[in-house]
């Protein structure tokens, strides 16, 4: 029978604790014939953007989830009709066939942002329906209302929100969601943990009329949405304090000018960044609490005695942080080459999960686009992040005389739960010492 060839293609279990994904881009359309292993859809999780292929030759009957939808595992994505001679998959989860492959050309693990906390017990696994109508939010049930019991999986919430709920001991099924489509937000969890009942949402105010064409609404989707969520998470997780100082880069600028021809002969572009990274390793050895992760679940500071430095990199999709591993054992040339390699892969969307994870401390160089200084947001669960401004000639006083020097601002944002302001000042002073006297770095090599 024709009906035997119709089945619902659901979001498969992508492993590693992934409970939901965002539909980023459809690669097929209704009525299209697809081959076995042909990619159907790009889905973004907290860990990566993946392409989910079809395991059978089939025809697309309907697309059942919209781009931008965040759907739990087991939600129907599309309906397929098997081609003649193709056997029916065992169940809707098997419809995805082989394990989802990294998206081509864009594999976008969010290394600029922290991995979710380890999943706790999952009593919700048993009894969850294998399929649920796409785009239909789970019912929101407040303590004052009667309604169906929701499983944790059916609650719409990001992995970061689920991790916070586990940390605070909050049962997500009891939290009224105030986000789009009834999604439970971080603020909902925090309010619930304090026993605060959210006020009923006010009726939306009518937007002021504007001439046609003068306003545009751009939905935050894909990586941009994940970045927004992670930035909010970091801002509300760590009490941020930013310490700003300036460094005289004159001696280092002279060294860089001498070294640039040699770098070019090796096919390398020599910026200040490799020198700054070497100086950071020296300073982090003196102040090791900055080269650490804060484990909020165990209330422990995990000090790292290896130095993997993340470098914030702008891409067309948003900001990602590729990681230069083991900076302490690399030469300036090797660091410069690795920075270029990672930057190219990241901007081309070809960086691997390994390229984008494992940082112990991060750097953001807004000076490369003309910024003087800023207040960077910490790359969770790290303890601090360094922002570097542009180097420019400025008049300064040296030995009672006004002279022109190459000056740069440094901005260190740090987690005040585990580091104090005096520690930050001493750490930056140590970094300045190495940058202003780069010959001292020879003692660290």
Structural summary, described in words:
This protein has 445 residues and is α+β, with helices and mostly antiparallel strands. It is built from seven helices and 20 strands. The protein has helices at 159-168, 186-193, 222-237, 250-265, 273-286, 332-347, 421-436, and strands at residues 6-10, 20-26, 33-34, 39-44, 49-53, 58-63, 70-72, 76-82, 101-102, 240-248, 292-295, 300-303, 309-311, 313-314, 319-320, 323-324, 361-364, 384-388, 392-398, 401-415. Strands 10, 13, 16, 17, 18, 19 and 20 form a seven-stranded mixed beta sheet that branches. A five-stranded antiparallel beta sheet has the order 7-2-4-5-9, with no helix packed on it. β14 (313-314) and β15 form a beta hairpin. The N and C termini lie far apart (73 Å). The model is unreliable at 92-97 and 103-150 (pLDDT under 50).
Count the E strands. 20
What is the subunit organization of this protein? single chain
Helix content: 10-25%
Rg calculated over all Cα atoms: 26 Å
Q: What share of residues are in beta strands?
A: 15-25%
Count up the helices. 7
Order of helices and strands: EEEEEEEEEHHHEHHEEEEEEHEEEEH
Q: Assign an overall shape.
A: globular
Concise synopsis of the structure shown:
This protein is of the alpha+beta class and 445 residues long. It has helices spanning 159-168, 186-193, 222-237, 250-265, 273-286, 332-347, 421-436, and strands at residues 6-10, 20-26, 33-34, 39-44, 49-53, 58-63, 70-72, 76-82, 101-102, 240-248, 292-295, 300-303, 309-311, 313-314, 319-320, 323-324, 361-364, 384-388, 392-398, 401-415. Strand 4 and strand 5 (49-53) form a beta hairpin.
């Amino acid at each position: 029978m024709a009906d035997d060839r119709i089945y619902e293609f659901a979001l498969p279990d992508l492993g590693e604790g992934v409970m939901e994904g965002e539909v980023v881009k459809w690669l097929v359309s209704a009525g299209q014939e697809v081959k076995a292993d042909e990619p159907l859809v790009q889905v973004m999780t907290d860990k990566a953007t993946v392409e989910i292929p079809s395991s059978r030759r089939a025809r697309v009957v309907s697309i059942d989830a919209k781009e931008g939808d965040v759907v739990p595992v087991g939600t129907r994505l599309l309906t397929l009709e098997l081609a003649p001679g193709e056997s029916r998959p065992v169940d809707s989860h098997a419809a995805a066939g082989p394990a989802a492959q990294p998206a081509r050309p864009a594999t976008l693990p969010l290394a600029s942002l922290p991995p979710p906390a380890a999943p706790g017990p999952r009593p919700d696994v048993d009894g969850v329906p294998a399929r649920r109508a796409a785009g239909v939010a789970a019912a929101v049930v407040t303590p004052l209302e009667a309604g169906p019991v929701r499983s944790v999986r059916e609650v719409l919430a990001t992995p970061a929100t689920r991790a916070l709920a586990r940390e605070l001991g909050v049962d997500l099924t009891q939290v009224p969601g105030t986000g789009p489509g009834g999604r439970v937000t971080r603020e909902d969890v925090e309010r619930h943990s304090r026993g605060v009942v959210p006020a009923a949402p006010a009726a939306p105010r009518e937007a002021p009329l504007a001439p046609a064409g003068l306003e545009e609404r751009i939905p935050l989707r894909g990586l941009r949405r994940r970045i927004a969520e992670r930035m909010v998470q970091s801002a509300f997780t760590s009490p941020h304090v930013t310490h700003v100082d300036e460094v005289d880069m004159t001696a280092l600028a002279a060294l860089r000018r001498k070294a640039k021809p040699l770098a070019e002969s090796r096919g390398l572009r020599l910026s200040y960044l490799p020198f700054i990274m070497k100086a950071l390793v020296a300073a982090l050895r003196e102040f090791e609490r900055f080269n650490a992760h804060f484990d909020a679940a165990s209330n422990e500071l995990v000090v790292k005695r290896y130095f993997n430095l993340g470098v914030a990199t702008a891409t067309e999709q948003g900001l990602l942080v590729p990681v230069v591993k083991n900076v302490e054992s690399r030469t300036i040339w090797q660091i410069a080459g690795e920075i270029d390699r990672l930057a190219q892969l990241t901007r081309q969307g070809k960086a691997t999960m390994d390229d984008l994870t494992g940082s112990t401390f991060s750097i953001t160089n807004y000076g490369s686009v003309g910024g003087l200084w800023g207040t960077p947001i910490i790359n969770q669960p790290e303890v601090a992040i360094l922002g570097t401004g542009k180097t420019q000639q400025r008049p300064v006083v040296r030995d009672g005389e006004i002279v022109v020097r190459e000056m740069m601002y440094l901005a260190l944002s740090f987690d005040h739960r585990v580091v104090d302001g005096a520690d930050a000042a001493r750490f930056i002073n140590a970094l300045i010492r190495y940058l202003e006297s780069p010959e001292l770095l020879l003692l660290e090599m």
